[in-house]
Amino acid sequence: MSFAGDQAAAVAPAPPAPDRFTGFAAIDWSGAVGMRQPGIAIAFCEVGNDAPRRVRPGHVWSRGEVLDWIAGEMPAGTLVGLDLGPSLPFADRGAFFPGWDESPADARGLWALVDRICAGDAHLSATSFVDHPQAARHFRRHGNRPGDLFGAGRGRLRVTEEAQREQGLNPYSNLNLVGAAQVGKSSLTGMRVLHRLGGAVPVWPFDPDPGAGSLLVEIYTSLAAIAAGRARGRTKMRTVEALNAALAAPAIASRPHPGEGPIDDHGSDAILTAAWLRRAAPTPTPWRPATLDRHLAQTEGWTFGVV
Question: Superkingdom of the source (predicted)?
Fold first, then answer.
């Protein structure tokens, strides 16, 4: 997969070959404070129809451990989805942080900036970045403290998030740090992980697919749930029975997950999304979003499965 042309023309790379990947992983992420995060879950499956399994079931992951797993333990040839926003809005204002002379020109520069400013923050957290006097102006923060450049309403959205809305989803701005549904902290902590990967695993569409080895994409777990027949707004599955009903859907076509009764929704999100990636990856449509162009690919990125 390669990006052709120097202008912001539509990107139409060839999709990976249908048998490009031999493993599929989904990581439900957390930006919460602390060393270990109960909200992190990893599920993995191979080609076929066996139900995805939790990686280290019962283990409470740290973000550093997830980084190590991706970089050194994940099986080769894995398509791995991270449930976080790997970038911030850029296209709407021509910059991540208009008016700040350190505002980076692309996403990899953004990841480096966040990691540098947060170098002293333990556990790959991002407190120093949201407290930075220039960056803080662009975030909605706790204590009803909207930055003077946050904007009105729900805040700035990336182009892929606008496309998510058109598909009936309910994205939140990555610049919003307030409320149970906020995704800003997950995004910023994830950027530190992506920077520290240092290119060991390419990240689509910021990097072209090299055609072999593992590849990382951004996921939105609700897409998998909706593909499996779950209603919009009711995508969380908190019992094994509900999860297995979703796994059995034609778009997922997976064997059931063992067990019965309650299951945490972080685990069920990861399990279902790994199975969905297994079916979506061999098809060309998710790799060719209609409005993804070269500039977006380098600045804002794109959510796999949003077309």
Answer: Bacteria
**Beta-bridge partner residues of 37:** 61
Model confidence at 179, pLDDT cuts 50, 70, 90, reads confident
| Residue 138 resides in a domain | no
82 - beta bridge partners?
Answer: 27, 218
| Cα–Cα distance measured from residue 53 to residue 25, given in angstroms and rounded to the nearest whole number | 10
Residue 121 · residue 131 · CB < 8 Å: no
Q: Is residue 19 part of a domain?
A: no
d(CA 83, CA 279): 18
Please state the domain count of the chain. 1
Q: Interior CA angle at 191 toward 297 and 92, to 5°? A: 45
Global pTM exceeds 0.70: yes
Question: For the chain, first and last CA: distance in Å?
Answer: 18
Reading phi first (left if > 0) and then psi (alpha if -120 to 50, else beta), residue 143 is in left
Q: Is residue 306 within 8 Å of 31, Cβ to Cβ? A: no
Using alpha carbons, list the distances in angstroms from residue 145 to 25, 97, 149, 234, 277: 37, 17, 11, 30, 38
Asked if the structure places residue 223 within a domain, the reply is: yes
**What single string gives the DSSP state of each residue in 83-126?**
ES--S---TTTTSSSTT-TT--SSHHHHHHHHHHHTTT-GGG--
Domain around 265: 25-86+198-287
Confidence of residue 156 (pLDDT cuts 50, 70, 90): very high
145 in a domain, yes or no?
no
